[in-house]
């Protein structure tokens, strides 16, 4: 893990975020500080704004008031450094149906070796499915293709929107362990999930307003 991310400064800060969609307040005056080594679950009922908050943090949504800071700098000045350290997995699996798992990962992670890709696919339980068109994989297997990226990159900040969707019990346990390992090595993990984590973590709770 990069020593650049080991200071006591918060890695990510949200200051007084206000967000409305369709004249409905999703969250107001929402502030938090997230540091290296934390595992953070954003929780709340359906429609409370979890994915919206994630999209704001990763810079995919501009529809909000307030500030997001990276290492104490306003995001608009720090975005390049933030993206350099970010692995973001969105709500959709982002797997191209016509490509095989191996081809999908090669296109998303062009610097990864074929050996590393096969190794990552094996780790997520897709040994033997490397060359199968992804459209013929199950929903859980497609999610696993996306999750294989966690084994391919050494980015310190993981932001994951519903990573447990369609994953079976053994996959859930493996992913929880991976998240714990990453944060214990100094990484910051932020995720949304309706799954109750069985490992120690911090929570940001959104509610119906
Ligand atoms: N671009 C948009 N335009 C209008 N409304 C939006 C937009 N994006 C989200 N919303 C609304 O904002 C609310 C919050 O959506 P969001 O996807 O953030 O919720 P969530 O907490 O992630 O929900 P879930 O648990 O169901 O995944 C929803 O009512 C949704 O319809």
From TrEMBL:
GO molecular function: ATP binding; ATP hydrolysis activity; transmembrane transporter activity
Transmembrane segments: none
Keyword Acyltransferase appears in the UniProt entry: no
Gene Ontology biological-process annotations: cytochrome complex assembly
Domain ABC transporter: 12-209
Pfam families with a match to the protein in the record: ABC_tran
Keyword Transport recorded: yes
Keywords assigned: ATP-binding, Cytochrome c-type biogenesis, Membrane, Nucleotide-binding, Translocase, Transport
InterPro entries found in the cross-reference section: AAA+_ATPase (IPR003593), ABC_transporter-like_ATP-bd (IPR003439), ABC_transporter-like_CS (IPR017871), ABC_transptr_haem_export_CcmA (IPR005895), P-loop_NTPase (IPR027417)
Top-level taxon: Bacteria
Name listed for the protein in its UniProt record: Heme exporter protein CcmA
Organism: Bermanella marisrubri
């Amino acid at each position: 893990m990069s020593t650049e991310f080991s200071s006591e400064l918060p890695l990510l800060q949200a200051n007084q975020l206000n967000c409305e969609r369709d004249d409905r307040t999703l969250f107001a005056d929402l502030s938090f500080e997230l540091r290296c080594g934390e595992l953070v679950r954003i929780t709340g009922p359906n429609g409370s704004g979890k994915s919206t908050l994630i999209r704001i943090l990763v810079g995919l949504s501009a529809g909000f008031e307030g500030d997001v800071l990276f290492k104490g700098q306003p995001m608009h000045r720090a975005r390049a450094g933030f993206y350099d350290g970010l692995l973001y997995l969105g709500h959709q699996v982002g797997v191209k149906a016509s490509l095989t798992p191996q081809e999908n990962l090669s296109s998303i992670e062009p610097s990864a070796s074929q050996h590393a890709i096969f190794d990552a696919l094996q780790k997520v339980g897709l040994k033997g499915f490397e060359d199968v068109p992804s459209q013929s994989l199950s929903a859980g297997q497609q999610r696993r293709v996306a999750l294989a990226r966690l084994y391919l990159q050494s980015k310190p900040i993981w932001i994951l929107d519903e990573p447990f969707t369609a994953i079976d019990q053994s996959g859930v346990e493996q992913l929880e362990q991976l998240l714990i390992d990453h944060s214990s090595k100094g990484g910051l993990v932020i995720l949304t999930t309706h799954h109750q984590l069985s490992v120690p973590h911090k929570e940001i709770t959104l509610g119906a307003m």
